[in-house]
C-alpha cells in the first residue's frame, strides 16, 4: 500500500493577474476582454509547493478573492495538508456566510492546490493518485459569440486543429440570427462535427421554449443553459419540450445545487466547474452523483486539472477547451487530434511562467 508523505502548510502565496485575451470572449451578457486570475501557491514545511488558479470573470473581483485567499492561508498555517480536513475547517469558518460565490471560489482554490501538493509529494500525476491512468480525453473547442461570418471562420480554425466537436455562444435579439450563425458554422465544418450552443442563461422560459422548437431542427449535440442557471424547474420544463439534449451544471455551487438539479430532472447532460463544485474534493463527490444518476459529465474550463478529473469520472463525456491561463503557464494544455491527455508530471502539471506573471501582475 502506498504511503502518502505528511505535509504541513507553511504559508499560502496569492497573486492576482489580469491576462489580456487574444480573442475577447463575447457572450449574450457582454464581452470578457481578459482572464482575471488569482494564482495560488501553497507552500509546505517539507519544501513541496502545490499550485492552482481561480478565474473571477471580472477584474473587479480579483482583489476581494485574493484577500480572501490570503486570509485563509493564515488560518491554515501549521495544518496538515489533508484536503477533506481543510475543507471541513473552512466550511465551518464560512458557515454563517455560506460556501458559495467568492467564498466558494477561495475554498476550491485552496483544495486544488492541496491536492497538487499531495500528488507531487507522492511523485505521481494527480490522475494516478486518484486511482486512474493518464488517458486521452475527447475535447471540444469552446468559442465565443459573433456574426455568422466570424463564427464560421473560428469554427473552421478549430476544425483545422483537429477538434471533432465545437461549441459557440448564441442568444441574439432575434432567433433568426441564432439560426443564421448555427447554419453558417454547420456549412463551414460539415455534418460530421458535433455542434453545441450556449445561451448563457439569457432567455426566459417561454422564449427558450419558442426558440428551441426551431433549434431542434438543426441537429445540435446540446443546448446549454437556455434560462437562468438556478431555475431547475424551468430547465426541466424546457427539457420536456425540447428534443435536443439540455446541458447544465457549470454554475452549480457544490453538491446541494447539483442534487437539486438532478432531482428536478433539469438536464440530460451535466457539466462541472472544478472551481464552483468545490475543487478536486467536490468534483469526486459530484462525479459519483452523476454516475448514480447515469448522466454524462463534461468539464467547464480549467482544462489542466479537468483532464485529470475526467480521467477518473465514471460517466466521462467531453472536456471543454478554453485555455484562459495559457499565457502564465510554463506548459499549457496540448490538444492532439481533438483530445487532451493529463500531464504526466507529478501533481496537476501547473507551474508558472514567471516573466508573464510579472507582466500581468496587479500590485
Question: Can you describe this structure?
Answer:
This protein has 363 residues and is an alpha/beta fold. It has two domains: 9-124 and 354-360, Enolase-like, domain 1; 128-340, Enolase-like C-terminal domain (TIM Barrel). 40% of the residues lie in helices and 21% in strands. The chain is built from 13 helices and 13 strands. The protein has helices spanning 62-76, 83-93, 102-122, 126-129, 148-160, 175-189, 205-215, 232-241, 254-263, 274-277, 279-293, 303-310, 354-360, and strands at residues 9-27, 30-44, 49-55, 137-142, 165-169, 194-198, 222-224, 246-248, 269-272, 297-299, 319-321, 335-336, 339-340. The strands form two sheets. Strands 4, 5, 6, 7, 8, 9, 10, 11, 12 and 13 form a ten-stranded mixed sheet that branches. Strands 1-2-3 form a three-stranded antiparallel sheet. Strand 8 (246-248), helix 9 (254-263) and strand 9 form a beta-alpha-beta unit.
Assembly context of the chains: single chain
N-to-C CA distance: 46 Å
What is the C-level CATH assignment of the largest domain? Alpha Beta
What would you say the CATH architecture of the largest domain is? Alpha-Beta Barrel
Give the number of helices.
Answer: 13
The mean pLDDT is 97
Residue share in β-strands: 15-25%
Helix content: 25-40%
Tally of domains: 2
Gross morphology is: globular
Secondary-structure element series = EEEHHHHEHEHEHEHEHEHHEHEEEH
Alpha-carbon Rg, integer: 20 Å
Q: What's the total count of β strands?
A: 13
From the helix content, strand content and strand pairing, which structural class follows?
Answer: alpha/beta
CATH superfamily label of the largest domain: Enolase-like C-terminal domain
Largest β-sheet summary = 10 strands, mixed
CATH topology of the largest domain: TIM Barrel
Low-confidence stretches: none
Amino acid at each position: 500500500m502506498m504511503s502518502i508523505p505528511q505535509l504541513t502548510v507553511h504559508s499560502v502565496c496569492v497573486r492576482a493577474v489580469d491576462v489580456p485575451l487574444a480573442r475577447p470572449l463575447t457572450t449574450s451578457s457582454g464581452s470578457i476582454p481578459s482572464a482575471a486570475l488569482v494564482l495560488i501557491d501553497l507552500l509546505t514545511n517539507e519544501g513541496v509547493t502545490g499550485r492552482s488558479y481561480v478565474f473571477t470573470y471580472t477584474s473587479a473581483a480579483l482583489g476581494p478573492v485574493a484577500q480572501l485567499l490570503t486570509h485563509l492561508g493564515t488560518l491554515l498555517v501549521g495544518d496538515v495538508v489533508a484536503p477533506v480536513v481543510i475543507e471541513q475547517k473552512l466550511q465551518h469558518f464560512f458557515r454563517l456566510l455560506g460556501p458559495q460565490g467568492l467564498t466558494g471560489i477561495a475554498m476550491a482554490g485552496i483544495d486544488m492546490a492541496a491536492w497538487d501538493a499531495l500528488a507531487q509529494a507522492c511523485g505521481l500525476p494527480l490522475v494516478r493518485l486518484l486511482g486512474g491512468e493518464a488517458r486521452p480525453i475527447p475535447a471540444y473547442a469552446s468559442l465565443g459569440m459573433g456574426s455568422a461570418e466570424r463564427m464560421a471562420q473560428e469554427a473552421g480554425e478549430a476544425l483545422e486543429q483537429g477538434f471533432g466537436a465545437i461549441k459557440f455562444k448564441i442568444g441574439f435579439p432575434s432567433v433568426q440570427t441564432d439560426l443564421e450563425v448555427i447554419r453558417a458554422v454547420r456549412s463551414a465544418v460539415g455534418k460530421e462535427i458535433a455542434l453545441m450552443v450556449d445561451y448563457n442563461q439569457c432567455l426566459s422560459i417561454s422564449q427558450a421554449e419558442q426558440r428551441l422548437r426551431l433549434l431542434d431542427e438543426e441537429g445540435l449535440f446540446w443546448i446549454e443553459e437556455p434560462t437562468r442557471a438556478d431555475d431547475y424547474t424551468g430547465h426541466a420544463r424546457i427539457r420536456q419540450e425540447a428534443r435536443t439534449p439540455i446541458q447544465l451544471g457549470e454554475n452549480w455551487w457544490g453538491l446541494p445545487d447539483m442534487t437539486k438539479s438532478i432531482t428536478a430532472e433539469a438536464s440530460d447532460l451535466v457539466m462541472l466547474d472544478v472551481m464552483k463544485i468545490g475543487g478536486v474534493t467536490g468534483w469526486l463527490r459530484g462525479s459519483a452523483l452523476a454516475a448514480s444518476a447515469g448522466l454524462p459529465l463534461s468539464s467547464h474550463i480549467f482544462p489542466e486539472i479537468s483532464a485529470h478529473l475526467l480521467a477518473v469520472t465514471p460517466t466521462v463525456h467531453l472536456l471543454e477547451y478554453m485555455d484562459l491561463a495559457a499565457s502564465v503557464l510554463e506548459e499549457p494544455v496540448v490538444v492532439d487530434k481533438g483530445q487532451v491527455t493529463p500531464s504526466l508530471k507529478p501533481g496537476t502539471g501547473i507551474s508558472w511562467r514567471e516573466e508573464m506573471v510579472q507582466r500581468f501582475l496587479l500590485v
